[in-house]
Amino acid sequence: MTVARASLVSVETTPWYHCVSRCVRRSFLCGKVPDTGKDFSHRKQWIVDRIKALASVFCVKVAAYAVMSNHYHVVLYLDKEKAEALSDKEVLERWYSLFQRPFVGKKFLDFGEKGLSKPEISEIKELIPVLRQRLYDLSWFMRCLNEHIARLANREDNVRGRFWEGRFKSQAILDKKALLAAMSYVDLNPVRAGIAKRVNECEFTSVKDRIIGKDKDKLMAFEGESKKKELEARIPCYFKDYLELVDWAGRAIRKEGKGYIKDNVPRLLSDIGMEPKGFLAFARSFLKEFGPVVGSPDLLKNIVKKRQIRYVKGINAARRVFIQKAA
User: Fold this and answer.
1) How many domains does the chain have?
2) Do the beta carbons of residue 261 and residue 247 sit within 8 Å?
């Protein structure tokens, strides 16, 4: 059953979200179409560029992304604290870099409150909190991403109508274990699809950008990076450890299929108490295993209680992999 987005996304519950959008009828509208031979692979770079451009405007950090031929994934952090720290002028400047300025907004940016009448000041004071909230709103971020790409593609094809199959799918990520599982699942998309053999060959992914040092300032920093801004939120592990984790998982998926587990289990799995077999299973089917929330069994039970629902998809899967680390 369709659930209202407002009931699925709450910064107070978690700032982390995994989102996916698919092309209409899952057609290869961002890759090579098997039937006709037409190649739309250049559109993948459109999506990457738009994700990074929006990250510099919105108070939303990009932890991971992967762009495939008929869909894309992103793992996002909604930075409410950063949005609330912006001045009124910064809020308007950011928003109007994407949308047309109304007359009163232009006057405020040009002259400040002194150049406005009392009714205009009231209007601006009502408008700014709304725009501030939108700057860390998941739906607005995804809307600005998907609508832009759809318009570009439709203009190129000289057609009208849907480009994406519907609204994006989102999953709330409740803890560190779920975050690392989601990021790995996203970054390993090309390996699972058989497009790439190694992590460093995964084109149009965040992990490839990080390996080659491309646009690092437009991606969310890992622990130990970006020391200039100590108070900013970071991915809660070191990139070296994360890279070891996804490389191990990628080799396991590529070499031996479902039954393969490499002897040297990454230290990060041991540190956070995740079971290797379960982690590899999630690296293949994370999206299918869980519903709108992902986390430990206890956290999922809390969601059930808080939302007054009978069940949430993924509790059994969480018990298999998000185990407590032994003392």
Assistant:
1) 2
2) no
Do 42 and 126 lie in one domain? The reply is no
User: In this model, does residue 321 exceed pLDDT 90?
Assistant: no
| 14 within some domain | yes
Average pLDDT for 169-198: 91
Instruction: Name the burial class of residue 130, with classes exposed (0-12), middle (13-18) and buried (19+) by CB atoms within 10 angstroms of its CB.
Output: exposed
The residue segments making up the domain with residue 313 are 8-82+137-321
pLDDT over 50 at 258, yes or no: no
Which amino acid, residue 129? P
Q: Which residue has the tokens 């274990």?
A: 177
How far from the centroid of its chain's Cα atoms is residue 125's Cα? 31
Q: Which residues of 160-176 are buried (b: 16+ CB within 10 A; e: fewer)?
A: eeebbeeebbbbbbbbb
Strand partners, 77: 16, 61
Give this prediction's pTM: 0.90
Q: How far is CA 279 from CA 21, 292, 318, in A?
A: 24, 19, 10
As given in the structure block, the two tokens for residue 186 are 């996203």
Q: Residue 123 is encoded by which pair of tokens?
A: 């209007």
318 phi/psi in degrees, rounded to 5? -65, -35
Two tokens, residue 182 = 């989601």
Q: Which of 172, 221, 208 is nearest to 63 (CA)?
A: 221
